[in-house]
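Milestone 3.1: sequence recovery, worked example.
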């Protein structure tokens, strides 16, 4: 009798453990199918898919990697740069799997893991919007499950995509990107620059005036006095390896063409220098999260304004974060991001 009672109690505890864990899709033995790739075509590659992209200059392949299975939540990650890589987002592995959020790493065309036609006629927002749309179709994402996340340049791309294809979206996340390149430059010039020691700012400005961007001194000054305060608020020697790799793998050709050579806004002949969609945000009806940070290269007040422009917008401020606030204000960043995704998924966004 005693042994039967123990077995019964064990059965009840297992039953309620399965019942109460709402983040797990139960099977008969309470094992989640989130990481089960056995019925997927990409099991052989561990979730990696090389997706063909049709362009006026031919067909090229872009690299994507899917993590997890969740038919209701699929988050496509758009990296910055332009010319950056998915490596800026490696820390997502520490948070999204626990919440059973499916997410897709993606290197845009001419980025490190994808094909590199090196054709500047393809380096336009119009091209990249259509590239994202082809990736979406290939991965079977639609308005029932498709969340588009973009950080920095990826935020520009996400906004441009939403302006054309919002009907395909379930949720939109804009991280660390303003809606106006001129305003971004103005913030760097009038607010961030003067925070530097005057002699350091003077030397940087002299190097820029001489267009001496390849000078190691220019890189040294920015890394020491700008990047460690506004890009990632950690000593350089403590930067995660994934961030080091992302910078090592950055494609300088596309970066200089679209962003320009200066780190104080967009300068020179940068094609994004006049980009501005501020007056169009109100037309995007997709539930949207805007993530800003106190020490970012982007003005957090402007980003809060953006959130209020979106009809279904929400603002998240990372008080201790900078441009890569997914690292230097990580807990607040992911708590707010995951909460937004769940609220949209549950239909409780207010």
């Amino acid at each position: 009798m005693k042994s039967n009672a123990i077995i019964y109690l064990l059965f009840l505890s297992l039953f309620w453990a399965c019942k109460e864990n709402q983040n797990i899709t139960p099977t008969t033995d309470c094992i989640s199918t989130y990481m089960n790739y056995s019925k997927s075509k990409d099991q052989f590659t561990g979730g990696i898919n090389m997706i063909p992209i049709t362009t006026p200059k031919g067909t090229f392949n872009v690299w994507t990697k899917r993590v997890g299975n969740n038919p209701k939540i699929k988050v496509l990650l758009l990296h910055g740069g332009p010319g950056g890589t998915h490596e800026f987002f490696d820390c997502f592995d520490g948070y999204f799997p626990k919440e059973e959020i499916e997410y897709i790493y993606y290197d845009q065309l001419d980025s490190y893991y994808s094909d590199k036609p090196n054709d500047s006629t393809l380096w336009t927002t119009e091209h990249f919007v259509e590239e994202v749309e082809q990736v979406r179709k290939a991965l079977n994402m639609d308005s029932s499950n498709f969340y588009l996340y973009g950080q920095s340049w990826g935020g520009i791309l996400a906004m441009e995509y939403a302006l054309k294809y919002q009907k395909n979206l379930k949720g939109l996340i804009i991280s660390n990107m303003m809606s106006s390149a001129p305003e971004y430059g103005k913030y760097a010039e009038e607010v961030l620059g003067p925070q530097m020691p005057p002699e350091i700012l003077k030397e940087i400005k002299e190097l820029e005036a001489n267009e001496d961007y390849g000078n190691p001194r220019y890189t040294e000054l920015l890394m020491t006095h700008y990047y460690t305060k506004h890009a990632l608020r950690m000593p350089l020697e403590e930067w995660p390896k994934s961030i080091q790799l992302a910078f090592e793998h950055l494609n300088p050709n596309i970066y200089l063409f679209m962003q320009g050579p200066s780190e104080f806004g967009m300068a020179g002949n940068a094609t994004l220098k006049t980009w501005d969609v501020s007056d169009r945000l109100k037309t995007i009806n997709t539930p949207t999260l805007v993530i800003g940070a106190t020490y970012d290269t982007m003005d957090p007040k402007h980003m809060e304004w953006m959130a209020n422009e979106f009809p279904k917008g929400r603002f998240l401020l990372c008080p201790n974060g900078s441009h890569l606030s997914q690292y230097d204000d990580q807990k607040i960043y992911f708590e707010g991001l995951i909460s937004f995704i769940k609220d949209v998924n549950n239909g409780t966004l207010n």
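The longest strand covers residues 58-67. Residues 6-28 have pLDDT under 50 and may be disordered.
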